Amino acid sequence: MFMKHIQERINTLVKEINSHNYNYYVLDNPSISDYEFDQLLAELIALENTHPEYVQANTPTQRVGGEISKTFPSAKHSSPMLSLGNTYTKSELQEFDTRVRNGIGDGEVEYVCELKFDGVAIALIYTEGKLTQAITRGDGVQGDVITNNIKTIGSIPLTIENDYPPLLEVRGEVILPHINFQKLNKERTDKGEAPFANPRNAASGSLKLQDSAEVAKRKLDAFIYSLNTDLPNLKTHYDSLQQLRKWKFKVDQHARLCKNIEEVIDFIDEWDEKRKHLPFDIDGIVLKVNSNEQQSQLGFTAKMPRWAIAYKFKAERVTSKLISIDYQVGRTGAVTPVANLEPVALAGTTVRRASLHNADIIKQLDIHYNDTLYVEKGGEIIPKIVDIDLSERDSNASAVEFITHCPECNTLLVRKEGEAAHYCPNTDHCPPQIKGRIEHFISRKAMNIDSLGEGKIEILVEQNLIHRIDDLYKLTYEDLIGIEKTHLINDKERIISFREKTVNNILNGIEQSKQIPFERVLFAIGIRHVGETSAKKIVSHFQHIDKLMQATFDELLKVEDVGEKIAESILSFFQNPNNQEIIKNLRLHGLQFSISQQDSSISNIFNGLRFVVSGSFETPQRRKEIEDLVEKNGGKLVSSISSKLSFVVAGENMGPAKEQKAQELGIPIISEHDFMKMIHNN
Ligand code: IVH
């Protein structure tokens, strides 16, 4: 063949194969036999091997996999991958509808109802129409880049043909259909390997495989449920779904536009029955406000959108006998009762333990020893005890009494007014509290000392090498080298030995943690009720640990998001002489306890100001950076244009409706350049 013909043949094969893939995986309507398809693919592979110069970017031959990923790099999401609020009853749905109506003022609300796929969330980024990055949800802010594994999923287009924006992000759910799940589990049990508990776990495990050829064999599938790029001509979520279909994504064909909440309830009733016949798992229905404008008006809470909610179908329920109750002590000293149950199969797993939460729940349920309990598994992983089968109660059974003393250190437990949990007040000497605090300190979102993972902390505490977080910074090579211990992790025995490489990694990790910024150090030291977000706000307000330690109750209350509970907790933390000494030592070791003067990007110049960041920026990461700068400098991010807004930071292609509204309200629309100038001129 002439070169030109080879190139043409490759182009034709790519087009044909893509089209057959689409018919097979997205439309579920194969256009040729498997044999004919394999022939076309084999021809393309052969031509690509002999003529690598003509291999197209994102050729369908990549779908068979073969790339090995030793590690998966992590990447930040362009906007957080949030979760959804859950409802279990129709009346909660009515309440959601009322909240939505109140939030948007006048006007009709339409909803789009979709199936809630029970799989693994994924973000897909297309640059110039080519799939360039696939990122897992991770912690919502950043996830793992698993592009090669995702490319093996036949229903995900590797290229988009028409009318695409230069940068496009879509989000959806990777699932494993029942038939492929059963096949996979059979193969595993035949080989003597443990089967996966359910299709969701199998999908999640498959996406983490290092060999993409193995992933290809699992035959995962994916539904795309949202467009995460602002496109001004799309006014509703339903329009976005149509556009996604035009781009050949697999979109829930059952998604329905509902005129009101009654129609939503009809949809739910219909699917409560029909879901049993689907070829994959769903765990509920998602309803979303259809109008993009109304979505912007409603905005988000810290964790979830106010314009969408999930209705979860009633969970499967089984009974099991209570064997005993364990009391677990966490890092804050809170005591959680956990029921040990006779093993029982429930929704694909064997349940042996279930949380009883606190003394109130035990009282409310009136649990007696030896009772037969109803156990349910909702969306959560940990099963819940929801009721008791009184007909099975022994006549001489006595009621469960909550313990009075700490099961670990025998200190008398206390219970603060207004709080449900009992606490062990022996903060400084109770072993699980000591261990828990250090584990929290080194965790990824805190000081991120990942060389000191699960097991090692326990050994170091047992060996009396550390009992407070500041002890970590005193550890030496000689202290650690040669320690060897057998340790139980997930019921499996593992030998942990501190050899030269391990010890050096640990010491390096500890040293590097001295550069971690103040806001994370504040979160890491583990003040009860001070989470990641409140730590950020506190740091941006006080800037220096001395100012924070001197702050009065009223001064603390001035910080956004700090209420009485957090303020009290901060005061009592810094009043404790033990904590004062820890802070003193950590400062001597060089940890960050103030906002660095060099870092001109942190200030409180935007205190009291509200920002909307809109349109697209050079990269999705850039948009996130701008949003971070708003918050780091004391500003607040909001999602809708209103008269309370201070600035709109506009990138390319800001929606015309937003622009017009901002202009009408006289809100300054500034460029990224103007925004950076505001920070640097400060
Ligand atoms: S919309 C802001 N639609 O459910 C969140 N999510 O709890 C927007 N999910 O992790 C999500 N099916 O992965 C949406 N049709 C659907 C969904 C869906 C499944 C998952 C999603 C997320 C979780 C939310």
CATH superfamily of the largest domain: DNA ligase/mRNA capping enzyme
Distance between the termini: 67 Å
Specify the number of helices.
24
Could you say how many structural domains there are in total?
A: 6
Structure report:
It is a single chain. The radius of gyration is 28 Å and the shape is globular. The chain contains 24 helices and 23 strands. β15 (372-376) and β16 (384-388) form a beta hairpin. α1 runs antiparallel to α2 and α16 (518-524) crosses α17 (532-542). The protein is 36% helix and 20% strand. The longest helix is centred in the N-terminal third of the chain and has 24 residues, at 3-26. Strands 12, 13, 14, 15, 16 and 17 form a 6-stranded antiparallel sheet that branches. A 5-stranded mixed sheet has the order 2-11-10-3-9. It is α+β, with helices and mostly antiparallel strands. The chain folds into 6 domains: 2-64, Helix Hairpins, CATH 1.10.287; 75-312, D-amino Acid Aminotransferase, Chain A, domain 1, CATH 3.30.470.30; 315-424, OB fold (Dihydrolipoamide Acetyltransferase, E2P), CATH 2.40.50; 431-515, DNA polymerase, domain 1; 518-599, 5' to 3' exonuclease, C-terminal subdomain (DNA polymerase, domain 1, Orthogonal Bundle), CATH 1.10.150; 610-680, BRCT domain (Rossmann fold), CATH 3.40.50.10190. The mean pLDDT is 89. The chain binds 2-(butylsulfanyl)adenosine (IVH). The site of 2-(butylsulfanyl)adenosine (IVH) has 14 residues, from β3, β8 and β11.
